[in-house]
TrEMBL record:
This is SDR family NAD(P)-dependent oxidoreductase. Its EC number is 1.1.1.-. Keywords: Oxidoreductase. InterPro entries: NAD(P)-bd_dom_sf (IPR036291), SDR_fam (IPR002347). It is an enzyme of class 1 (oxidoreductase). SUPFAM superfamilies: NAD(P)-binding Rossmann-fold domains. It comes from Promicromonospora kroppenstedtii. Belongs to the short-chain dehydrogenases/reductases (SDR) family.
Length: 252
C-alpha cells in the first residue's frame, strides 16, 4: 500500500503534488497551517476522484509540535488505512518574500531558517521511523538557489533553499542503505497563491519572466506537482540525490 505525506498541501504545488500522488494510487495525508479550507479542498478533490486522503494541521515553524504531529499521523494511518508506515514524504511547506541583503533583519533571516530549512530537517527526522524501506522523500527547493539568473533580494530565501538541496544529497547518502530515495525539485517562476497575486499585479514583470523562459510561459502548480509525483513513484526508482529543475528552461 502506497501512502504519502505532503507537507504544505493546501494550495499551489503541494496541492498539485497531493492530487497527482493520489491519481497514481497513493493514499495521502495533507498538512496545512493557516489554510484549513484549502487542505479540505485538496482532500475533497482526491476523494471525488476515488482516492483516500485526510488533512492534519502542522506548523513547520514550530518544532515543539512535531512529536504530537507524528502521533496524529500514526492515528490517521491506523484509522484510515489500517497501516503503520508511509511510503512517501514531500516537504513543501514554506513562504517567500524578498528583501535586499543590506535591509534583511535578523528576524527575517531566522524566520526563513526556521520554516524553510530547520522545519523540513526536523520534520523528516521525526517521521523517519514511519517511512518504509524503499520509500521516497522529495524536498521542494527553488531556482533561486541556482548559479545563474539570480534576482536581487532573495539572498536569505535562496540560501535556505540551497541548504535544502545540500541536505537532500546527505539524506540520499545516509538513507540509501534502507533503499530510501531522496531528491529535490526546484521550480522556476510559478503562478501559485504563494506569489500573492504578484504576477497579475505586475504584468510587465510577468512578461519579462516569460521572455526569459524557453518554453514561453510561467510555470503552473501542476508542472512541479507532476515532477514530484514522478519522483515518488516506481518510475523514479533509480533516481536519488538529484535536484530536478522544473523551470521550463528559465534563464536557459
Amino acid at each position: 500500500m502506497s501512502i504519502t505525506i505532503v507537507v504544505g498541501a493546501s494550495s499551489g504545488i503541494g496541492q498539485a503534488a497531493a492530487i497527482r500522488a493520489a491519481e497514481g494510487g497513493s493514499g495521502v495525508i495533507v498538512t496545512y497551517n493557516a489554510n484549513q479550507d484549502g487542505a479540505l479542498e485538496t482532500v475533497a478533490r482526491i476523494q471525488e476522484a476515488g482516492g483516500t486522503a485526510v488533512a492534519l494541521p502542522l506548523d513547520v515553524g514550530d518544532s515543539a509540535t512535531f512529536p504530537a504531529f507524528r502521533a496524529a499521523v500514526e492515528r490517521a494511518l491506523a484509522e484510515t488505512w489500517g497501516a503503520r508506515t508511509v511510503t512517501g514524504l514531500v516537504n513543501n511547506a514554506g513562504y517567500g518574500g524578498g528583501t535586499l541583503f543590506a535591509d534583511t533583519t535578523e528576524k527575517q533571516l531566522d524566520d526563513f531558517y526556521r520554516v524553510i530549512f530547520k522545519g523540513p530537517y526536523l520534520v523528516t527526522q521525526t517521521l523517519l521511523p514511519l517511512i518504509e524501506d524503499g520509500g521516497s522523500i522529495v524536498n521542494t527547493a527553488s531556482s533561486s538557489a541556482g548559479t545563474a539568473g539570480l534576482s536581487e533580494g532573495y539572498s536569505a530565501y535562496g540560501s535556505m533553499k540551497g541548504a535544502v538541496i545540500v541536505l537532500t544529497r546527505y539524506l540520499a547518502k545516509e538513507l540509501g542503505a534502507r533503499g530510501i530515495r531522496v531528491n529535490s525539485v526546484s521550480p522556476g517562476p510559478t503562478n501559485t497563491p504563494f506569489a500573492g497575486g504578484a504576477f497579475e499585479a505586475y504584468p510587465e514583470m510577468t512578461a519579462q519572466l516569460v521572455e526569459r523562459t524557453a518554453l514561453g510561459r510561467l510555470g503552473r502548480p501542476d508542472d512541479a506537482g507532476s515532477a514530484i509525483a514522478f519522483l515518488l513513484s516506481d518510475g523514479g526508482r533509480w533516481v536519488t540525490a538529484q535536484n530536478i529543475e522544473v523551470t521550463g528552461g528559465f534563464n536557459l
